[in-house]
Amino acid sequence: MRDRLAAALKASRADYTEIRVERTWSSAVTFRGRRLETATVSEDEGGFVRVLNQGYGWGIASFTSLDELPAMVIRANQLSRAVRLDEPIRLAQTAPQVAAAALDLDGDVRGVPLAEKKRLLEAYNGAMLGVSDRVVDTQASYQDEVSEVWYVNSEGTALSQLRPEVVLSGTAIARRDGTIEKGLESIGLRKGWRSVHGLEERFRTVAGRAVDLLDAPRVKGGAYPVILDNELAGVFVHEAFGHLSEADFVYQSPQAREMMTLGRRFGKPVLNVGDNGAAPGLRGTLPFDDEGTPTQDTPLIKNGILVGRLHSRETAAKLGERPTGNARAISFRHPPIVRMTNTYIAPGRGSLEDLIKDISLGVYACGAFGGQTMLENFSFTAAYGHMIRDGHVAELVKDVVLAGNLFQTLDRIDHIAGDFTWNQMGGGCGKGGQFPLPVTEGAPHVRIEEALVGGDVPA
Amino acid sequence: MTNVVDRLLDATRRRVDGADALWRREERTAVAFESGRLKTAGVTEEAGINLRVLAGGRVGVAGTTAATPDIQALVDRARASAELGEPLDLAFPPVSRLPDIPTHFDTAAGASLERLIRMGRTLVERLAREGCQVNVAVEREIAETTVGNSAGARGGYRATGVAVTADLLRIAGDDVLMVYDQYTGADLPADADLDALARSIERRLEPALTVVEPPEGALPVVFTPTGLAAVLLPLEHALSGKTVLQGTSPLAGKVGEALFDAGLSITDDPLAPARAASRPLDDECIASRTTALVERGVVRRFVYDLETAARAGTYTTGHGRRGIFGKPRIAYTNLIVGSGPDVVGARHAVPLQLGGGLLDGIDDGLLVDDLIGVGQGNVIGGAFSHPVALAYRVRRGEIAGRVKDAAVAGNAYDLLKRIGGFGTDGRWLGSHWSPSLLLEGVSVARR
Fold it and tell me: What is the pLDDT of residues B54-85, one digit of tens each?
């Protein structure tokens, strides 16, 4: 493969050329209720070429037929030359990297019979179904893959990477008459077969919660003091701040740059946020990004002050900053764009009890069904919640969706506990038509003095 | 290359009890303007085959994107998949007569890169204004599909699809406003379509420049065709035969019952002219036809693919959709809410009319155009709760300005029992067509 890529690079007539080739072996098992839906093994392969010429824009080509590689290099160059630009695109300098990085496969999934994967998932699915007669339906899935990725560019970088991944997820649907609730478990690891055993209890827990939610009232809408558990706090930092720190949002807009000026205060001194693509063993972890830049730990907010942002080579050059290794593509079908890796709120001090004790009426929002940002405003949807009454965790409530505002919500974080955890979830992040990108989020318990919770309000 | 389906089905003969297969090739050309300037031009070419077999009374699937697929290996993988599969009495449908609908437009297929760039540039120039960033993307897809099965059914078609999206980002101090709109169709947009797109963005932008306090309480809320997505999503889940089969559809067993406002009709129409989701047959060789799901408030029919129909003891409605990997699943084609597009609507060139004529009787309420986090809650239960992305306060029948930091919540099944009004502003949004709806008693919370 290396020779093929080197020959294609050499034949390119563009000023800058990069080629990425991926070959992915994957297997998947899914259950719906008691029934197996599918058990399959798949092979996917393809390539991606991106070129740049002085005075012209990007030309890109992606393809599933690798025999087409030389033709696609020519095609990408033609496309680039169709895009005339007054202001040239520059790429920040990076040292050429030559490496073969094989992550630990942790029990190579390619060697495990599909029947064994089916048995494993059947046990987890059965754990959910066994909780109660009220659990009327489940969706359970097991997916693994091992992908080989080759990357070369005309500046001398030549990388090959071997990446494992395994994702387990379970949704339990509980029903009583017209009331239907769900519980969701999701585990995503950049690991292999050895790491997916002994998880029955986690699946049982979410199914039990779906049943409990049948009797829970909907949360009343309004502004409350809110405590986020580790999982939801992770989703929160991803949506509330992570996307705004992606430099492709600001690099072409003076107004956006003004709004996101380094040195601006976004939170109280307790708030420290970063993104670490080099953290060992996480799903968003990779030695190099999809432009061949080494990943790193990038501080974004330090003691409440904006101190950094996430870059590709293009955004870094434009803003006169250094690339951070955050140019990522979900597959050979897409170009790299600025993305998060493992995003975190750094631990503070104390425990959940310390955060709760002086709240007379509030919401403890737990677990995550998801989140979405529209830049200034964002949502994060809890899996469930509890009311906080007189300093104690009280009754279960459902449909807890928080409405956030970049400038208000971050600034109202007034207490961060010391109980940090990484949340190794499946699924992933979506941006620019690229979903799901493997990312991890990490956080301790976080308290927001006041946040808007959607829900019924008195007429 | 299209006879790969024949070769594949030949290879399965005597090795399995039955099979069907899909081959699809797609070529996409895209140009992207960022902050008003053309930055990128790209192509994507992808081809692959998906095989499903029935072996020993069990179903298995396999797929590959390999350029020269090892057909025997693919059959082996599908058989191995079937060994683990559930028993199923699956009958592959025989040859049927296909409707003659145009899916391939030469003007779209033949459009040069320069033409796509010109279309994008026209929009960028039209939308440019001080203090705003304009992003425009133009994408053209040419696809070819062949499906076949061991009962002798064969079908295939070529299709084109065009999508033009534009968004305008305005940052003023700490206020971030984003408005967007799109054109989608099987053919290139006419000048009038691009004009409608630009005008739809302008009509959202102008009243949004004033920010007002949100109202609070159980209020009348008008949902635009884009804003309506959150309310319709629970019904889309509930009308799927899969959800019914699994016992989680609130609509199961309710066929023939009037559960919704008598004005509400929902139709799936794979034959809609010049729409990107239209097709003569589905991915399981079933000839396309229109399916009435809800008719004047009465639940009529759920949608099925072959496998779900076989398990449910009913017939497929032609809603099988398959990718290269995995097995077919149920998917809608074009979903039409209300009476459907007239001749003008079908041509798409209708700019958004904010409010759709529904604001007159509203003393204090909300007009919701876009919500955040749609699809992330307990969708199947019908409950929704979302912060607003783009919404306006309505006072005494007029738009008073944009509201921020408000959240709307309700239950789709309750709210759609009585619809306060259907707008006169029906338009296509991707594969959905709907007018604005006025719903009463939607919870609006604010800080």
Answer: 999 999 999 998 888 899 999 999 999 999 99
- Determine the pLDDT at residue A211: 98
Tell me, what DSSP letter sits at residue A238?
I
Q: Which CATH architecture is the domain A2-213 placed in?
A: 2-Layer Sandwich (3.30)
Instruction: Give the other-Cβ count within 10 Å of A396's Cβ.
Output: 17
- B158 C-beta neighbours (distance < 10 Å), count: 13
Distance CA B109, CA B156 (A): 17
Please state the domain extents for chain A: 2-213, 222-453
CB within 8 Å: B77 and A82 = no
Instruction: Write the DSSP assignment of A348-382 as a string of letters.
Output: -SS-HHHHHTT-SEEEEEES-SEEEEETTEEEEE-
The helix/strand/coil state of B292 is strand
Distance set, CA B191 to CA B103, B122, B347, B348, B428 (Å): 21, 9, 12, 11, 17
Distance CA A47, CA A59 (A): 14
Residue in the block written with tokens 């059914």 = B153
Closest CA to B129 of B175, B40, B198: B198
Residue B285 structure tokens: 């060789």
Q: Which of A35, A58, A64, A434 is best to mutate for the B interface (most B CBs within 10 A)?
A: A64
Q: What integer pLDDT is reported at residue B294 of this predicted model?
A: 97
Which pLDDT value is given to residue B348? Answer: 57
Q: Could A455 and B385 be called an inter-chain contact, meaning their C-beta atoms sit closer than 8 Å?
A: yes
CB contacts of A67 in chain B (<8 Å) are 67
In the chain, the amino acid numbered A260 is M
The stretch B213-239 carries a mean pLDDT of: 97
pLDDT at B344: 45
Which positions of chain A have pLDDT values less than 70?
459
Most confident of A451-455, B29-33, B170-174: B29-33
E strands along A295-445, which residues? 297-302, 305-306, 327-328, 337-338, 342-345, 361-366, 370-374, 377-381, 384-389, 392-397, 401-405, 413-416, 421-423, 429-431, 434-437, 440-443
Q: Tens of pLDDT along A211-253?
A: 999 999 999 999 999 999 999 999 999 988 999 999 998 888 8
Q: Distance from A167 to chain B by nearest Cα, in Å?
A: 16
Return the top range by mean pLDDT from B161-170, B336-345, B427-436: B161-170
CATH assignment, B4-208: 3.30.2290.10
> Can you give the C-alpha Rg of chain B in angstroms?
24
Q: Which two tokens stand for residue B196?
A: 């409608």
Q: Which pairing describes strands B419-422 and B335-337: parallel, antiparallel, or unpaired?
A: unpaired
User: Does B1 score more than 70 pLDDT?
Assistant: no
- CB burial class (10 A; 0-12, 13-18, 19+) of residue A287? middle
Nearest to A83 among B38, B63, B216 (CB): B38
- Inspect the interface and report whether the beta carbons of A58 and B117 lie closer than 8 Å: no
Q: Which residue carries 């060139």 as its tokens?
A: B349
